[in-house]
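The instructor's notes for this session suggest beginning with a concrete chain rather than abstract definitions. Hand out the sequence below and ask the class to guess, before any prediction is shown, which regions might be ordered.
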Amino acid sequence: MSNQPAAPLRLHVPEPTGRPGQPTDFSYLRLTPAGEMPMPALDCPAADMRQQAWGLIRVTDHEGNANGPWAPDLSPEQLQRGLRSMMKTRVFDARMQIAQRQKKVSFYMQCLGEEAIACAHALALQPGDMCFPTYRQQGLLISRDDVPLATMMSQLMSNANDPLQGRQLPVMYSFKYAGFFSISGNLATQFSQAVGWAMASAIKGDTKVASGWIGDGSTAEPDFHAALTFAHVYRAPVVLNVVNNQYAISTVQAIAGGETTTFAARGVGAGIASLRVDGNDFLAAYAASRWALARARANLGPTLIEWVTYRAGAHSTSDDPARYRPADDWQRFPLGDPIERLKRHLIVRGIWSDAQHEAAQEELQQEVLAAQKQAESHGTLLDGHMPPLETMFEQVYEHMPPHLADQMAQVRAEQEAQRHG
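After discussion, reveal the predicted structure:
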């Protein structure tokens, strides 16, 4: 052994590959050409899926052609519906972003650039399946025909038509009948809840599966690891979705551990079948979702999917991304715009055109605007309209206990005093 003094120890702190004014180097993404990733058998052992966890499942190329074994056999009607769902989601986001700036809504979170993931996944789900989403999967709801846009907007405005009666932050929807579990503001809780729901479905001998959602930053939370353990040990019928949109609130995904590995690789390490998927490729997103959901339904256990995408907008209306990343990042992101990519594919197939796209855009603009007018007729934050005071205390317990009744009476008395003061 050398007598030389040891070098001082030091920590490695991940640095982003792009900052304001400095173009991002996206070479870290580990891209795989469209069509090259093989599709494993549905019962493939997790240990044999390193290729799918480290590479990238892609279907559509730059010209809009579908390639390889993952290319799904979707009808023209299904493809057009998927495109319209993504377009409607983007229009909805844009209108609600403006509504927040007009002070009609207190807070909003877009899914700009990520529309393909939720909209394609929605197409692969079956009635009765339960999603445990984050606040950027509004496409799961907008893709359906039975969730009124005006009702979603009323939740954002906390008005008299809000089904949650003002008890939740904006964008934290809850639609049990639509398979959309109540969103929690606490990070990562929905992952362990999804696994628990899936385990309960299996215990009951049901046929419904769960789909949990999380962001790349939230994989650093303990609930993420607990969910993986329970899902693996009990082979829960669940799909565990990690949306890697490159940033948490203001920190790059490397801070959560994505610098020298992939988030999909964590699933393989936990004994779970794992896929790393181009999240801006609608066809790849649908194919991967269908594969994972079929595996769960066949009692073959859970699947973890890392969706590689990019958060094109701010984290929320309270965030300014220009402070921590280049302003033109989304235009330079190698995986492109999911709507433009599916549009190009449909045009290549001869089942869509620029004229149809423009007409659909105008139609969806009018549909969303009409829904907004309907929602605003019940009140907005701007006019000070709020649900009745009693809704703070009701439905917390089956029967209101005395201490809540006393609190409600006290607040009523204070309001009366202010009104006559």
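Then share the key points. The chain has a mean pLDDT of 95. The radius of gyration is 23 Å.
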